[in-house]
Amino acid sequence: MVFALAGDSTMTRFLAMEVGLGAQIKDNFLRESFEQGLKQVAFCGYPLRGDNLAVPYICTMLEGHQPLEETRQGEATVVQGPGASGRKLYLESYGCQMNFSDSEIVASILADAGFQTTREADDADLVLLNTCAIRDNAEQRVRNRLVHFKANKRKNPSLVVGVLGCMAERLRDKLLEEEKLVDLVVGPDAYRDLPNLVGQVEGGQKAVNVLLSREETYAEISPVRLDKGGVTAFISIMRGCDNMCSFCVVPFTRGRERSRDPQSIVQEAQELFDQGYREVTLLGQNVDSYKWNIDNKGVVKDDKQPVVRFAELLELVAAVNPDLRVRFSTSHPKDMTDDVLHAMSRHKNVCKYIHLPVQSGHSDMLKRMNRGYTREWYLDRIDAIRRIMPDCAISTDIITGFCGETEEEHQATLSLMDEVRYDMAFMFKYSERPKTLAERKYEDDVPEELKGSRLQEVIARQMVHGKERTQALVGQVHRVLIEGTSKKRDDEFFGRTTHNTVVVFPKGDLKPGQYVNVRTTDCSAVTLKGEVTDELAQS
After folding, report:
1. Taking the model in full, what pTM does it have?
2. CA dist list (Å): 181 to 170, 185, 230
3. Domain count across the chain
4. Same domain assignment for residues 203 and 90
5. How far, in Å, CA of 274 to CA of 268, rounded?
6. What letter would DSSP give residue 10?
7. Domain span at residue 412?
8. Which of 278, 279, 289, 198 is nearest to 242 (CA)?
9. Tens digits of per-residue pLDDT, 336-377?
């Protein structure tokens, strides 16, 4: 079954088959919107997070939007290392923002060890794949990529091939046993050990370090930045996750939560601003649970040091400079407090955009998912956002077809979408992942066809809401940070509003990294179009 879409591009036909849904999209706007969405799809483990371990099927991406695009999957990290040895590193990254941020850390550690990065795997002495374990599709992609390097190994027997990240931690034994090519397996908390491990391999041994840490945050390591434009950057503020959602494997691959000290975060933000960056995204599996100098029971660890929670951290980073935009990802409904919302409202440079995953609109389903909140609690958080920041944009994640999902539970999700009317949504069809509570406790009993048809309904509903939310911004003046050249027109720039909505406009004499006020005149499904103006921005 495939979507009936306008156009017949190879990408559209492939993705329609990949999605495996049946639909007749009759509305011209929706048809156009869906076509556009398909062309910009990202198969991400998300965004930015490990909250969603179901198979992601449709992530309608904005041009330049931050959950990482499909085109960046497998991207090679290339920077100039300081070492004189001339050893070359080829590093590919897969998955979410956190993985790409981790690759910056890996590149920095190995640069200090004398490695220089290369875009050509054929030239490399060390090949590393930074992996994602969110879904089976991501793992199969990495396995297929490893096959490619067998020829490189035959040509250069001294080549060291390693697997990093979440997949490495989850499949360490299989990678060494089944993938005879792999010499090195390193989990996300063991990157500091990479130079030693590479040395072990060069000495004729296989090397493994997948130990999870309760302390490692890489706080003092200055990551090598991958953003070539030097406009936006990621700052990792914490690692791991304690939430234990029943569908999620991240607590097993990234370990327990630990927060980075706030001083190092603020220092990194200041350094980025001094280098010309104008936006930072604070990353964590659950940023709302960030805490420094306080334990899980609320006991202060050191009376001589300040207690810093996420609201206070936002204030500190926002105070670096009013021209430094601050975003964050991702929030958890059970932990988001009004203090965070008030901190956002007090600072114009903290973007008015919140990603608040709901997953399901029915309390019974949320209980099976072990989300820690009810439908009523979630809607209370939405009401708080609307009350404190009426113009705040909200996006979400939704899973269809989780274990035991009834038609009533599915309809509850649709009704919640109608009530909230999200600006954007990342929509998923559930796929069971090993080691999760769901695998042990529940039967994956919703037929695939029914999962797909329910996902179709969720997508169609979001198309309507997204259209409304984007059109409502037309005619307004928005402050936009220029990020780069539009992917469709060389004579246009693109940037984002505080609401994370992409705007395209003529280049003129402008440069990336500048702020401009843009009066919007038109829109497509997910992108605003406009002209630069001297008028004051309304947002």
Report:
1. 0.72
2. 18, 11, 36
3. 4
4. yes
5. 10
6. H
7. 1-62+352-472
8. 289
9. 999 999 999 999 999 999 999 999 999 999 999 999 999 999
